[in-house]
Specification:
The protein is an alpha/beta fold. Helix content is 34%, strand content 17%.
């Protein structure tokens, strides 16, 4: 199982409020059979309307920590939104608050979504915009976000934080680790004798 205790990478600022899942990944991409290729379409409509969108800016390419505002991921409950962000390269999201279903989908995909104060979110966004090459560290063990001289207190639902730092968010990893116990249980089942 993959434990996620700390994410460090360059940041990308998008400190706006009420960005919904349709803006993150437009509905026309929900018909895909797999999530492959969704990353190239993240914020596609916004990027067409705003030529200097951070997701198109050369200085933010390769960033892995997204800094947002309030109520990020509101709207529909599509899992495609965190999947698209993850496939673009986002490994952690820092913001003032998150829509509950979006937050759950992030956690289920191993993407920490941590909350900071509105003032800290703005300071982080401004610091990243001023110096895109600096690193941002999201520390789930110590509940902090660091960027240069900024050290912000981070809050996350304790159950979600624990599932990430222990690796329990990774259900497939749990199954792989439990393979011997699964085989033993299968051998005891009469209808599984031919398959074990």
């Amino acid at each position: 199982m993959q434990k996620i205790e700390q994410i460090t990478g360059r940041g990308i600022p998008l400190v706006l409020d009420d960005i919904d899942t349709d803006r993150i990944i437009p509905a026309r991409y929900l018909r895909c059979v797999t999530f492959e290729g969704l990353g190239e379409h993240v914020f596609e409509d916004d990027r067409r309307q705003l030529p200097d969108h951070p997701f198109d800016s050369p200085q933010f390419q390769g960033a892995s920590v997204l800094v947002v505002g309030r109520n990020f991921g509101c709207g529909s409950s599509r899992e495609h939104a965190p999947q698209a962000l993850m496939r673009w390269g986002i490994k952690a999201i820092v913001g003032e608050s998150f829509a509950e279903i979006f937050f759950g989908n992030c956690t289920a995909n191993g993407i920490p979504a941590v909350c900071v104060s509105p003032d800290d979110a703005q300071k982080l966004g401004d610091a990243i915009a001023a110096s895109p090459a600096q690193s941002v560290t999201v520390d789930l063990v110590n509940s902090t976000v660091h960027c240069g001289k900024i050290r912000a207190h981070a809050v996350m639902q304790e159950e979600a934080r624990q599932s990430l730092v222990t690796g329990n968010w990774d259900f497939l990893g749990q199954l792989v680790e439990a393979a011997p116990q699964i085989r033993q249980a299968a051998e005891r089942l009469p209808y599984m004798k031919n398959f074990a």
